[in-house]
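Observation: inputs received (chain + flavin-adenine dinucleotide).
Thought: call the complex predictor directly.
Action: predict_structure
Action Input:
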Amino acid sequence: MKYGEQAVTENSYDSIVVGGGIAGLTSTVYLALAGQKVLLLEKNNELGGLVNTFERDGFHFDAGLRALEDAGIILPLLQELKIDLKVVKSPVSIGIEKDILHIEGIESLGKYCELLKKHYPESGEDIERLKKIILRVMKLMDVLYGVENPLFKDLKNDTRFLFKKLLPWLPRFLITVGKINRMQMPVEEYLKGVIKDSSLRDIISQHFFAKTPAFFALSYFSLYLDYFYPKGGVGKLAEAIRDKILKQGGQIKTGTLITSVVPDEHVIIDSRQNSYTYKNLVWAADLKTLYKIAKAPDLPEKAKAVFDETKASILKHKGGESVVSLFLEIDQPLESFGSISSGHFFYTPSRQGLGDTHHKELQELLRDFDQLSKQDVLAWLDRFISLNTFEISIPGLKDRDLVPPGKTGLIISLLTRYELFEKVQEAAWLDEFESEFQQRMIRVISDSVYPQLKDNVLKAIMFTPLSIQSRIGSSEGAIVGWEFCNEMPVINKIQIADRAVLTPLPSIYQAGQWAYSPAGVPMSILTGKLAANKVIASLSPGILQRLRSRIFKAR
Ligand SMILES: Cc1cc2nc3c(=O)[nH]c(=O)nc-3n(C[C@H](O)[C@H](O)[C@H](O)COP(=O)(O)OP(=O)(O)OC[C@H]3O[C@@H](n4cnc5c(N)ncnc54)[C@H](O)[C@@H]3O)c2cc1C
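Observation:
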């Protein structure tokens, strides 16, 4: 369905937002609320980007993330926008081989450590040390997300929040940020100082992206308690913001791929050669694309140098890991899965851990790919899939209306690298590789945790890093923006997140998972709001007067 196409008659706007993911939707809704003439342009026919739910044969699947974490951002956003999103808790289970733990509260951390001790009896002391660290991280998280993000509060009028909550919290927040910044080293390195057994280290860290900052990874126990799920699927969040935009008079044009940005003329052009004029532009899509398609602006020498440097840095860096997701329609009732795990499940079929399989071996495999036979690649794939950790989601266990009666929809995913699929595609056996990947995923899961799976798959759909790249336009099929290397091409410190939305291009702001790192939905929303704030702050007096007179007219 295309939204608001008929409404777009004149192609000149106060603001244009490119990218209808959660960041672009957030920017657009706040610009519309500020009374701007705003247009959101999205390349796909549906909105939400990686926050999207699709339907096939009566089964609803979340195409991107599987559940939401508030992080002190999502619920305040909904409250500020007066959006009544129906949500349910999204309980998490963790499993290793035959042992499955349902996370119910902070006390489950003790049970998790017992589970680890059962599988790694030699590592009791190390596990106790890890438990203390996770508890410390959880306390820091309580402070970090302890108050609603002030960006979504009306500080002028909500003096109670300002004086009773925010101001007393600020000094604790600053101390906490200092402590968090000391835990920025990659989780793999950090764990080496805590745990001797390499398999155990793998089991704890292998479902994170390579070099995930230690704090971010170890905070996940808190996040497990925080997950919630919109009734109808994660995509309902995007739909609710879309509806609010339209209600506020914002315009949305889907099916529109932006292929050129001309900053000096304040013009963008789509693939059908339609041009749109803006006073301010928010780019809420892949950043490499922006720098590839933006014409170099005519700037004073110093500013031009900053632009050239930023462009070179952005184009040099790579997107982070991607994901393979299998969406399965299963001819079995929800109860047969619900009696084993909850609807959000992190499962590791082997205590052995991935070891070098994912990094060193994969690196070598990619380097020598042209000399290797299909059998060599598939032998590596066997190890990669059987030793890995799966994220499994069962939407029907969170909302029964998301599946036909008596059936189950299952989403199984594994983190993976774009380059692997790229190499296989170049070698012209992508379909075969995807089919081998799919069979192995189903076999490993059937042989371990869900035996009923194997003979009851009605239909399977697979998303790979290549399909994510082509659907979302995300470099390297990345699902949370930049890879976590030591040097980031964007801001990565929360206390200066405000600057993350600035670009060296005049009147162009950036938002979303490429604007700040590490990102995810909460940071994409936050940068979306920050970008809108910058645009609003840059309004000329003329526009302010127009806004004021509109408000008076409305009264
Ligand atoms: C499997 C999976 C699990 C995840 N798990 C979590 C999690 O647990 N927690 C968490 O916080 N995050 C998670 N994420 C990440 C999270 O979903 C993303 O970081 C977030 O949704 C990014 O939002 P965005 O708006 O910045 O970008 P996107 O969602 O990528 O939106 C960008 C939009 O721009 C459009 N676009 C691109 N190029 C153009 C162009 N040239 N012209 C017009 N439109 C264009 C795209 O089509 C897209 O709709 C997960 C993601 C995946 C895929």
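Thought: report the result.
Final Answer: The chain has three domains: 12-52+234-318+483-554, 89-229, 319-476. Residues 159-181 form the longest helix (23 residues).
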